[in-house]
Every structure is written in structure tokens, then in C-alpha cells.
Amino acid sequence: MNASAWQMLLEGAWTTVWISAVSIAIGVLAGLVIALIRLARIPIVDQLLVLYISVARATPLVTLALFIFLSAPDLGLDFNRSVAGILALTLNTTAFNAEIWRSAFRNFSREQREAAMATGMTPWITFRRIMLPQMVITSLPGLINEMSFLIKGSPAIAVIGIVDLTRVTNRISAVTYEPLPPILVAGALYMMVIGCLIWLQRIFERRANRLAM
Amino acid sequence: MSNWEILWQARDEFLIGFWRTLEIFGLSIAGAFLIGCGLLYLLEGSRKRLTMPLRIFIDAMRMLPFLILVYLLYYGLPSVGIRLDAWWTGVGALAVYHGTYFAEIFRSNRLTFPPGQIEAAKAHGFTKSKMFFRLILPQVIMQTRPLLGNQLIYALKDTAFLVIITVRELTAVANSLSSTYFIPTEAFIVVIGFYWALSVAMEIIIKQCGRFSAKRGFDNV
Description:
Chain A: Belongs to the binding-protein-dependent transport system permease family. HisMQ subfamily. Chain A: GO terms for molecular function: L-cystine transmembrane transporter activity. Chain A: This is Amino acid ABC transporter membrane protein 1 (PAAT family). By secondary structure, chain A is mainly α. Chain A has one domain: Orthogonal Bundle (MetI-like fold). Chain A has 8 helices and no strands. The longest helix of chain A has about 40 residues, at about 5-40. In chain A, about 35% of the residues are buried. Chain B has one domain: MetI-like (MetI-like fold, Orthogonal Bundle). Helix content of chain B is about 80%, strand content about 0%. Chain B has 10 helices and no strands. The chains are: A mainly alpha, B mainly alpha. The interface of A and B includes residues 61, 74, 75, 173 and 180 of A.
């Protein structure tokens, strides 16, 4: 492999990382919002969200990406590839994150909530000052696990023509006729990214254990 | 003729795609299950030299995206002289990839196994393999079944990746139908429905297994 192949690989890695990062950021926040809405138990909205979570968890990312990219013009929307890819990854990860946040809510200690109520905190202040900081720490290991699943699923967006870290290996081997080296390097790059996430997860798990939550 | 009627006339193609997905999924999870059990047995074994390479192999697999493994087998192996067709590459990659996940799930459960049982079995003169197959494996499998169920759904979702190496499965059928008749929305809604039905069915089966294992007393540890 020559210098331009390395450069292409790094560009592919950058594409994978930024698209995943945007989807993760949106997905974590949207998951929190969905978990909050589900706690309110609004009649029809609640059933719709349950349906969404169930379907989104069962749909393969490849299918979802193709569906969004191909049927967007039919529905009168005009996406470019990156937006369609981000949308597919986000729709998928939001469903999983919503479940993680919801279980953090359900497992939150009742005593603390009652104590907050007794000291006269409004629900919003209780949520922001008491619940959210603790929930972030307890659910971070799960959220980071989901992030590494998202990165492992991100090659799915190659199917709609985004040149990500997986797809770029095809481009390189089309020139050099040696498919093995770029694939191995791409695998090593994925391992580095996911290894970082696993390392972060261990740190947060240790911290969560130390805070005994 | 409405779009749905076109799809109804193409129902045979959907069913063939669904059947092929089922075939790939069934074969590969059977393989993955055997690989997982085999890896657990090897980790259990007395050969300490094997443990370290196996752990590294399992961790490496868990850090790789599935598609990279598929590329490695499909595009990479021919350059060392081994050529597999797309279908078998897909089945093999799924089996190996999810087999390591199964092994990891089993291993983490095995760590919490009460040592008293093993000692009792040894005192009764169980051989190593008999202890593994009669004592350890059934309990580990029944106790990890929620995690195994999750992993099965991940494996089902990973079958869709094989469309990229031109395996004719469910997603590929939707893709080709949508480009033939230009009805992407409806075609993909049908396919997503298929996947959803399959994973709901799996969840129900896993729950039923829960009943069986509660009856046999696997859960009260």
C-alpha cells in the first residue's frame, strides 16, 4: 500500500467516526427524551413509541439505510447520502438508548425522590439536580456499549454509497489488486476506535461501582 | 394496479428471500452455538497455554465489525488461495462471529458458577467431559438465555449485511424489487415487517424457554 491508500483509509475512518459521532450524540439525547415521554404514559403516544422501539430494534441497519435512502424521494424528501446514513443510524440507536434510559429511571431509588419532594424541590429541579447526574453515571456503561454496537453496525451505510472505512477498502483494492492489506488495516482501525470505547466503559463502570449505585 | 398489488404478485420472491434468510440464520446460529460451546470447553480445559490465545481471539472478534470479517473472508481469502462462494462465506462468517459472542456470554456466566458443584462432581468421580456436558453446559445455557436471545436478534440483523456481498436474501429481494418496479417504500415496509415478525417470534420462544427452565429449577441460584 502506498501513501495515497493510507490517506484514503484515514479519510474513510474519519467519515465513519464523524457520522457515528453525530448519530450517537443525537441518539443519546433523543433516547432520553423518548424515555421521559414514555414515563408520562400519554395514551396513544405511548403505544406508538412502544411500536417504534420494537420495530427499530428488529430492523437490520442495512435494510433501514436502504429504506430511508430509496424511499425518501417517494415521500417528497430530498436527502443527501450522509443525512440518510445519519438518520438510519440515529433511528436505530435511539430505540436502544431509550430502553437504557428507561431502565435507569425505573431503578432510581425511591427514597431519594421522596426526600427531594419533602425538601420542597419541584419535579424539574429534582430531575436536573438529583436524578440526571446519577442516572448518567449508572447508564453510561450501557450507553457506551450501545455506542460500540453502533460503530460495529456503521458499515451498513456503505450500502447507500457512503465511502466509509469498510467501503474504502474496496476502492483501494480496485487499484492495487491486493484486497488483504487494506482490509486488515481497516480492521485494526476499527479495533482502535472500539478499544477506546471499551476502555472508557471500564473507567465508568469502576466509578459507578465506587459510588455504589 | 396499485403498488401493493404489484408486491402481492411478487410474493413468491419475498417468500424465497425470507426462506433464504431463515436458512442462513438457522445454519449459522447452529454453527455459532456449537462454536460457542466448543470455545467454552476449551477455556474450561486444563491446557493453560490455550487460554490466552483464545481470549485474545474472542476479544478481537468482539471489536471487529461483522462486515469487516465478511470482507476478510470474501475478498481477502482468495489472495491466499482459498475461494468461497458468497453464500457459504456469509454462513461461515456469521457462525464464527456470533460463536465468539456466545462464548463470551457463556464465559461471563461460568465465572459466577458456584465452585461447590464442581468440587462435588469431582468428588463423585465425574470425568472432565461428563462434568462439562451434564453439569456446566445445561446450567450455563439456561441461565444465559435472555442474553442469548438478544444475541440471536443481533445475528438475524447481521444477515442483512450479506446483501453487500451479493447473497440473495430478504433485503436483496426488496432492493431488486424496488429497482424493478420503483416502489421502494412498500417493498421495504414488507421486508421490515418480516424481520419484525421473526424477532417477535424469537422473543416469545425465549420466554417459553424461561418457563421450562423455571420448572426444572435452573433459575434459583
